[in-house]
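ingest -> validate -> predict -> emit
validate: passed (alphabet ok, no gaps, 293 aa)
predict: started
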Amino acid sequence: MRVGIITVGVDVTALAQRAEALGFDCLWIPEHTTTPVQIAPKTTNYRQHLEEDGTPQLLYRSGQFADPFITLARASAVTARLKLGTGICLVPEHNPLLLAKQVATLDAFCGGRFRFGVGAGWLEEETAIMGGDFAHRWGQTREAILAMKALWTNESAAFHGKHYDFPAVLSYPKPAQQPHPPIYVGAFAMGNVFRRVVSYADGWITWILTPEQVREGRARLNEAARGAGRDPRSIDIVAMPVAAELDAFKAYEDAGADEAVVLVMPGPEPEMLNELEQIARVVLPRYGALTRA
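emit:
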């Protein structure tokens, strides 16, 4: 099983360099494009992100979400093997023509190391501010992915959908990975995620799911893949965040995860590097890129 790390809101150059040297597989960076001051939670799914007084949790309230593509570009410039992923990119908050160019440029410039983690977002106010249609955000996400695939894989491409519509255009550069970087769908719930993964993606990013839930999800994902004529082994599962403990890693491995991702808390660079070293000492003797080399 691969080992990744995720962090937020810091210059990751030193962290990325050390992660690659130690044998980690991937650096994941999450996204929130903006930080609404007032949030009106409507469901239990939203409330898990809020303090008792209804304000966002500290990490979210502090607005520590730097742009993931610029952050990963910083990491790509100082590494040669480390994979680089969005964990996740909020697709409905972007124009797919611009997003396709960002993804392709990063993948081309980093030599085909990008993993495109995507999602639709849970925060209605944020989606609305950025011009998305919250009620139909997954429909937007699907159309955007299909449009971007067309842009990546054709000399020129047009798209005519419900949410996005554009005539034939040229979009360069093309990604280094063919036909395009792997796409991972991230979601809190296990309702329609398997249909989405099988329909237009290469993997599933789980967020704060137990090993038992991942095991159930793997079984349902395999069933959905076979029903769609896909090889279940071609679909990746990335579990995040996972505690830096061997027992936790073994539990997720047994549940069918292909990668476990550990959170490195944002802070001063020496503290983050020290935390990374501690994680490495615990899990990399058994897992990690250098272990498998």
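The chain has one domain: 2-292.
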